Amino acid sequence: MVSKFTVSIKLPKSKYADTVMAIKPELGKVSGRSKEWLEEDKENLYFYIQSPDTVSLKTSLSAFARLASLVERISEEVM
What we know:
3-stranded antiparallel beta sheet, TATA-Binding Protein, single chain, alpha+beta, 2 helices
């Protein structure tokens, strides 16, 4: 049996839409063993990471956090 780990992060569109959309082109490029994707509904964005093991899950979560932090800092500087 192959088990996978899946993490979902729910973000309100009103606050994080610009940040997540800036990161969207990088989804799938972050880690070779993990799969990342984005879904949305009327009010929220859902970022998903599916990994075969905890090491690749941690790597993908860290990469997402670094990208989100970078986009936020750049946005603050531009404004």
